[in-house]
Amino acid sequence: MPANAKSELAPAGKLRVGVNLGNFLLVNKDPASGELRGVVPDLAQELGRRLGAQVELIGYPGAGQVADAAKTGAWDVGFIGAEPQRAEEIAFTPAYLEIPATYLVPAGSPIGSLAEVDRPGIRTAVAGRSAYDLFLSRSLKHAQLLRAEGIPASYDLFVAQKLDVLSGLLPRLTSDLTRLPGARILEGKFTAIQQAIGTPKARAAGAAWLLEFVAEIKTSGLVARAIERHGVQGVSVAP
Length: 239
Fold this sequence. Notes:
Layout: H1 3-9, E1 14-20, E2 28-29, E3 36-37, H2 39-51, E4 54-60, H3 63-70, E5 77-81, E6 90-92, E7 97-105, E8 123-127, H4 131-139, E9 144-148, H5 151-160, E10 165-169, H6 170-176, E11 184-185, E12 191-200, H7 204-219, H8 222-229, E13 236-237
Parallel strand pairs: 1-4, 1-5, 8-9, 8-10
Antiparallel strand pairs: 2-3, 5-12, 6-12, 7-10, 7-11, 7-12, 7-13
Helix pairs in contact: 1-7
């Protein structure tokens, strides 16, 4: 490992890791100890081990707040969905993991396909500033996006305002089905969230080394083992 990569990523021997606490698939807080557990904490610890650095996990309520914190240098690496808007400030690795995103419609909905969502008058609930919100903001031309603060709040908004569509991560929508008799998840996906590792753009040597790290943890099976260890359903190792 180049010395300048280590000095950029873990100055003073500490690796500060920005973590999206809203992504319940990849990180959860132990109710007894308060310790963060999951795929992301496991990969962060492996990253720290290879850098020879102590890991400090810094939790944020959502992906948007993780991205914002890159501007102030509050973290050294962040585990977050890679998106063009975020890439203005953050140098991203290729994805290490993908999460499909799709739509849920209520009982009796006439909407039968993904393409039918983008029509005038269709109101869609979304977790504001999530990776899939950024994607839908670019791609939807006619449907109206109604944003809520976080994934649980987007479900509450969908139900309370009797909206036409709930957009979200497929694993979460699958669990939401159990609370909504007659609701359906539309077949297919409108995107797959590319979960990646990023570092502030000025850290070129660190960013180059992170690319090698992500390639290795995918090919070695480390990502797959972390997914299996934590019993995460509906995600896959990125190609």
